[in-house]
Design a protein that fits this description.
The protein is of the alpha/beta class. It has 2 domains: 156 residues, Rossmann fold (3-Layer(aba) Sandwich); 72 residues. The protein has 9 helices and 8 strands. The strands form 2 sheets. Strands 5-4-1-6-7-8 form a 6-stranded parallel β-sheet. Strands 2-3 form a two-stranded antiparallel ribbon. Helix 5 links the parallel strand 4 and strand 5. Helix 1 crosses helix 3. The longest helix is centred in the middle third of the chain and has 21 residues. It is globular, with a radius of gyration of 18 Å.
Length: 252
């Protein structure tokens, strides 16, 4: 039987940030290099590929010299990772203007469409720490789509420690169900651009719309069996129609 998640008409859309909503033109790597240098580590900054990794996983990679898997992580490493992540996040607002990033096609229209719908809600589900997510979304003019009340923290879930991606997705699902206890996992939809997004959603029991908008091809993403894989986010009306679709796995 297929492992693609059952999907009901969507009521909560969980958005990844980097490569899904926007591209920073790798401004974040400037912040990581600065934070790594300031940490006093005299090793050469390693060739990190951050796509789909959480901020705390990236910090652990830099500290340990390998990309995981990290499994059970010591409290000492958690504390070191937190210091490095904090240094990165504090530098991010200053480095974002140094690169010519952009909001991806149809994102503003899709977020505005959801914002107008009483039955739909947008959430951030990201490997960024909250301070990093706020910096990116504010810089690119998207933060207001994820604020329950102006001036309040973003609506969503973020990296808080070195942990698997699905833990972040599960926290978002719990938060969404606290807001609406009737909400089912099949009525949630993760929108992301990496295999990590798909696998994290799958382990949390939530379907995924995978977008080949960054470093992964349609074939690479579809191999992880999201509900649907596209080359780009559709225009607003077509996206709204996708959200309304229902998909039920069938036995081969």
């Amino acid at each position: 039987m297929t492992t693609r998640m059952e999907k009901a008409p969507t009521r909560a859309v969980f958005w990844d940030i980097d490569g899904t909503l926007l591209l920073t033109a790798r401004a974040g790597m400037i912040a990581w290099e600065d934070a790594y240098s300031a940490s006093g580590d005299d090793r050469v900054f390693p060739p990190v590929r951050p796509d789909g990794m959480t901020d705390h996983q990236i910090a652990a990679w830099l500290l340990l010299g390998h990309p995981g898997p990290f499994g059970e992580v010591s409290e000492s490493l958690q504390q070191q990772a937190e210091v490095l992540v904090s240094g990165y996040a504090s530098r991010l607002p200053q480095v974002l203007p140094q690169r010519q990033g952009r909001v991806l096609a149809n994102v503003l229209e899709a977020l505005a469409c959801i914002d107008r719908e009483a039955t739909l809600t947008s959430w951030v589900v990201t490997g960024n720490v909250e301070a990093g997510a706020v910096a990116k979304l504010q810089h690119y003019g998207l933060a207001h789509f994820f604020a329950s009340v102006p001036g309040q923290p973003l609506r969503g879930a973020f990296s808080t420690r070195v942990e698997p991606r699905h833990a972040i997705v599960a926290r978002a699902a719990d938060a969404a169900r606290r807001l609406d206890p009737s909400l089912q996992l099949s009525e949630m939809l993760v929108v992301g651009d990496t295999p990590h997004d798909i696998e994290g959603a799958r382990l949390a029991g939530i379907p995924t719309l995978a977008l080949a908008t960054n470093t992964h091809t349609v074939e690479e993403l579809d191999a992880h069996q999201p509900w649907l894989t596209l080359t780009a986010l559709p225009e607003a009306d077509a996206f709204r129609a996708l959200l309304a679709q229902r998909f039920q796995p069938t036995t081969a």
